[in-house]
Amino acid sequence: MTFLPSVVHAEYCGGHRIRITFNDHSQKTIDFLHWLEGPVFEPLKSPEYFRRFFIDGGTVVWPNGADIAPETLFEYKEPEKPFINRPEQALRKTRRR
């Protein structure tokens, strides 16, 4: 990676989600819940504590020192949602008369 991403703005979006703006002006909303494992991340499971984040060193940081590398945030992709086959669509068939 030749581009070194840096977080320049972060906005709380509820739960464990933060809207991140990077130094290339790209934005994404990230759900951090899947990263909250291990002792340093334990306090962040509380939404009240989670929302106390701030930007330091080009990434999102919490008062206890927990952080996620800006490269990890930049490369994050939302998990794909499974295709849901809607029964009403499957039942719609055109009848020829």
Describe the structure.
This protein has helices at 47-50, 70-75, 87-91; strands at 7-12, 17-22, 27-31, 54-56, 59-61. The protein is globular and about 30 Å long. The protein has one domain (7-77): NE0471 N-terminal domain-like (2-Layer Sandwich). The protein has a three-stranded antiparallel beta sheet. It has three helices and five strands. The chain is α+β, with helices and mostly antiparallel strands and 97 residues long. A hairpin with a 4-residue loop joins strand 2 and strand 3 (27-31).
Give short descriptive properties of this protein:
97 residues, alpha+beta, NE0471 N-terminal domain-like, 3-stranded antiparallel β-sheet, two-stranded antiparallel sheet, 5 strands, 24% strand, globular, disordered C terminus
